[in-house]
Design goal:
The chain has helices spanning about 5-30, 50-60, 70-100, 105-130, 135-160, 175-195, 220, 240-270, 275-300, 305-330. By secondary structure, the protein is mainly α. The protein is flat, with a radius of gyration of 21 Å. The two termini are about 20 Å apart. It folds into 2 domains: about 1-160; about 165-333, no CATH class.
């Protein structure tokens, strides 16, 4: 295997990026997103204030948001892990250029460095703009994008040559791209649902408020920017707007399920072992994700299941990226 250093670093960074996404989801869902009202420190310090004097100073500096130590540590843990990921990506980029790796590796690593820098800015704006849904959703998308690019870099480094696939698999590239795009849109919609506190807008399943077409306000549901100075903690939308977001996410889940299910079944018919294994993992993640989504509703959004719903979405995304890589690899040879 060539470029072992980059490969192992990319694998480590991929795992770390997944942890960052999961911890970020825990931070958001445990209402700790404003556990530290400033950035990059916490109440003016690089660690959470602990002594009585420091706590008193912090509360005086931010009288409208007194220190909650548990939430502050959750928020800072997320920042520490994300910062470590940024350093690791910087290291990958430096090695890629200094060791003159192939152009694809250099382009991906440079893109990752730019993306993780922008992601840090989004993290800052998440706090300073008081959990604005558009920014928080972009922050989620950025995290998923970093995870995807790191995993793609790992697959690129692992590739030792031509992988012989069934000729029929070549025709699946457009359908795989479609499934990938649909899943990305659904993940973005899930982020919008979470950041607008619409996950419990419908407390029953499969109906919503006892109806299949409840009262909804689509016009208000998808206003991306509502100005500055608004505190979005807890959400600002009324019931019909949150219901519209929730129902749209359910419809998106149905469409996503059907498309990925079709891709998985077709991939299972291939003669290649890699494709079949990927298909099995993809279908398992798909079924688990749907089950977690339903459980979130009927069990009133328990924290563990809600966080797992985010994590499995990331795993499902990785299986689709694997399928996409296999189909592109086969066409390029």
């Amino acid at each position: 295997m060539k470029n072992k250093t980059i490969f192992y670093l990319a694998i480590m960074a991929t795992v770390l990026a997944f942890i960052v996404i999961t911890v970020g989801a825990y931070t958001r869902l445990s209402h700790a997103g404003l556990g530290c009202p400033d950035w990059p420190g916490c109440y003016g310090r690089l660690i959470v204030p602990a002594s009585d004097i420091h706590v008193e100073t912090a509360n005086k500096a931010y009288p409208d948001r007194p220190l909650e130590i548990d939430k502050a540590w959750i928020e800072m843990a997320h920042r520490y892990i994300a910062g470590t990921l940024g350093i690791l990506i910087l290291l990958i980029c430096m090695i890629a250029w200094l060791k003159r790796h192939d152009m694809t590796t250099r382009i991906i690593s440079s893109g990752l460095l730019l993306l993780v820098t922008f992601q840090a800015l989004l993290g800052m704006w998440t706090v300073t703009l008081l959990l604005k849904p558009f920014i928080v959703t972009l922050h989620l998308i950025g995290g998923m994008s970093i995870l995807s690019l790191l995993y793609w870099l790992s697959l690129h480094q692992k590739n030792n040559g031509y992988i012989k696939l069934s000729p029929r698999f070549e025709n699946y590239l457009p359908f795989t791209v479609l499934a990938f795009i649909v899943l990305c849109l659904q993940i973005s919609l899930g982020g919008w649902t979470s950041t607008n506190y619409a996950a419990l807008a419908c407390s029953d399943f499969p109906t919503c408020h006892g109806e299949y077409l409840p009262k909804m306000d689509l016009g208000e549901a998808f206003v991306l920017w509502r100005g500055l100075g608004i505190n979005y903690e807890g959400g600002v939308l009324d019931g019909p707007a949150r219901t519209a977001i929730h129902v749209t996410h359910r419809i998106g889940a149905i469409v996503t399920f059907i498309i990925i299910l079709m891709l998985g079944i077709k991939a299972l018919l291939q003669n290649n072992r890699q494709v079949r294994i990927t298909a099995v993992l993809m279908l398992m993640a798909l079924l688990l994700q749907v089950s977690l989504g339903i459980a979130n509703v009927v069990m009133n959004l328990p924290l563990f299941i809600a966080v797992a719903h985010n994590g499995v979405a990331a795993l499902l995304l990785l299986t689709l990226i694997t399928m996409l890589h296999l189909s592109i690899l086969n066409r390029s040879k």
